[in-house]
Write a structure and sequence with these properties.
Mean pLDDT: 85
Strand content: under 5%
Order of helices and strands: HHHH
Low-confidence stretches: none
Number of helices: 4
Number of domains: 1
Largest sheet: none
Number of strands: 0
Distance between the termini: 10 Å
Protein backbone atom coordinates (compact mmCIF):
# COMPACT_ATOMS: atom_id res chain seq x y z
CA UNK A 1 0.00 0.00 0.00
CA UNK A 2 1.57 3.25 -1.10
CA UNK A 3 0.64 6.45 0.68
CA UNK A 4 0.25 8.56 -2.50
CA UNK A 5 -2.17 6.03 -4.00
CA UNK A 6 -4.18 5.80 -0.78
CA UNK A 7 -4.33 9.60 -0.60
CA UNK A 8 -5.41 9.88 -4.24
CA UNK A 9 -8.19 7.35 -3.69
CA UNK A 10 -9.37 9.07 -0.52
CA UNK A 11 -9.41 12.52 -2.13
CA UNK A 12 -11.16 11.23 -5.26
CA UNK A 13 -13.80 9.46 -3.15
CA UNK A 14 -14.44 12.55 -1.07
CA UNK A 15 -14.65 14.86 -4.09
CA UNK A 16 -17.03 12.51 -5.91
CA UNK A 17 -19.28 12.23 -2.87
CA UNK A 18 -19.45 16.00 -2.35
CA UNK A 19 -20.02 16.76 -6.02
CA UNK A 20 -22.69 14.05 -6.36
CA UNK A 21 -24.55 15.59 -3.41
CA UNK A 22 -24.26 19.03 -5.04
CA UNK A 23 -25.68 17.60 -8.28
CA UNK A 24 -28.60 16.10 -6.35
CA UNK A 25 -29.22 19.34 -4.45
CA UNK A 26 -29.17 21.43 -7.63
CA UNK A 27 -31.33 18.89 -9.49
CA UNK A 28 -29.23 19.05 -12.63
CA UNK A 29 -28.15 16.15 -14.86
CA UNK A 30 -24.92 14.47 -13.83
CA UNK A 31 -22.00 16.08 -15.66
CA UNK A 32 -19.83 13.79 -17.77
CA UNK A 33 -16.74 14.79 -15.81
CA UNK A 34 -18.33 13.47 -12.62
CA UNK A 35 -18.90 10.11 -14.29
CA UNK A 36 -15.31 10.23 -15.56
CA UNK A 37 -14.12 10.87 -11.99
CA UNK A 38 -15.99 7.76 -10.86
CA UNK A 39 -14.26 5.72 -13.56
CA UNK A 40 -10.91 7.17 -12.49
CA UNK A 41 -11.65 6.10 -8.93
CA UNK A 42 -12.44 2.59 -10.16
CA UNK A 43 -9.15 2.51 -12.06
CA UNK A 44 -7.22 3.65 -8.98
CA UNK A 45 -8.89 0.93 -6.90
CA UNK A 46 -7.94 -1.72 -9.46
CA UNK A 47 -4.33 -0.51 -9.50
CA UNK A 48 -4.27 -0.56 -5.70
CA UNK A 49 -5.69 -4.09 -5.61
CA UNK A 50 -3.10 -5.25 -8.14
CA UNK A 51 -0.20 -3.71 -6.24
CA UNK A 52 -1.46 -5.07 -2.92
CA UNK A 53 -1.89 -8.53 -4.44
CA UNK A 54 1.65 -8.40 -5.75
CA UNK A 55 2.94 -7.35 -2.32
CA UNK A 56 1.04 -10.19 -0.66
CA UNK A 57 2.39 -12.75 -3.12
CA UNK A 58 5.96 -11.54 -2.59
CA UNK A 59 5.56 -11.67 1.19
CA UNK A 60 5.56 -7.92 1.88
CA UNK A 61 1.88 -7.74 2.81
CA UNK A 62 0.03 -8.20 6.07
CA UNK A 63 0.64 -11.39 8.04
CA UNK A 64 -3.05 -12.37 7.78
CA UNK A 65 -4.18 -11.30 4.30
CA UNK A 66 -7.70 -12.79 4.45
CA UNK A 67 -9.47 -9.75 5.92
CA UNK A 68 -7.44 -7.40 3.77
CA UNK A 69 -8.43 -9.28 0.61
CA UNK A 70 -12.09 -9.16 1.65
CA UNK A 71 -11.93 -5.37 2.07
CA UNK A 72 -10.06 -5.04 -1.23
CA UNK A 73 -12.76 -7.06 -3.01
CA UNK A 74 -15.47 -4.82 -1.54
CA UNK A 75 -13.56 -1.70 -2.58
CA UNK A 76 -13.20 -2.91 -6.16
CA UNK A 77 -16.80 -4.06 -6.69
CA UNK A 78 -18.61 -1.30 -4.77
CA UNK A 79 -18.87 1.28 -7.56
CA UNK A 80 -19.88 -1.17 -10.31
CA UNK A 81 -22.52 -2.78 -8.09
CA UNK A 82 -24.02 0.61 -7.19
CA UNK A 83 -23.94 1.56 -10.85
CA UNK A 84 -25.70 -1.66 -11.84
CA UNK A 85 -28.32 -1.12 -9.15
CA UNK A 86 -29.16 2.30 -10.56
CA UNK A 87 -29.44 1.32 -14.24
CA UNK A 88 -33.17 0.77 -13.90
CA UNK A 89 -33.76 4.06 -12.11
CA UNK A 90 -35.89 6.45 -14.08
CA UNK A 91 -34.96 9.25 -11.71
CA UNK A 92 -31.41 10.55 -12.10
CA UNK A 93 -31.39 11.66 -8.47
CA UNK A 94 -31.37 8.03 -7.32
CA UNK A 95 -28.32 7.32 -9.44
CA UNK A 96 -26.45 10.31 -8.06
CA UNK A 97 -27.37 9.44 -4.48
CA UNK A 98 -26.04 5.90 -5.03
CA UNK A 99 -22.83 7.37 -6.46
CA UNK A 100 -22.41 9.57 -3.37
CA UNK A 101 -23.11 6.67 -1.02
CA UNK A 102 -20.70 4.41 -2.92
CA UNK A 103 -17.97 7.06 -2.75
CA UNK A 104 -18.46 7.57 0.98
CA UNK A 105 -18.54 3.82 1.60
CA UNK A 106 -15.42 3.50 -0.53
CA UNK A 107 -13.71 6.05 1.68
CA UNK A 108 -14.59 4.03 4.78
CA UNK A 109 -13.41 0.79 3.14
CA UNK A 110 -10.18 2.53 2.14
CA UNK A 111 -9.57 3.51 5.77
CA UNK A 112 -10.19 -0.12 6.82
CA UNK A 113 -7.79 -1.35 4.12
CA UNK A 114 -5.02 0.84 5.49
CA UNK A 115 -5.76 -0.17 9.10
CA UNK A 116 -5.81 -3.87 8.16
CA UNK A 117 -2.58 -3.55 6.19
CA UNK A 118 -0.77 -1.78 9.04
CA UNK A 119 -2.01 -4.05 11.81
CA UNK A 120 -0.87 -7.23 10.11
CA UNK A 121 2.19 -6.09 8.25
Amino acid sequence: MTAPLVLAIAIDSLVIAVLAVVVVARRVPRPRWLQAAAWMLQLLLLVQAGLAGLAIVTGRGPAEPGLFLAYAAVAVVLLPVCGAMSTGDRVRTGQDIRLAVAAIAGLVVQWRLVATWRSGG
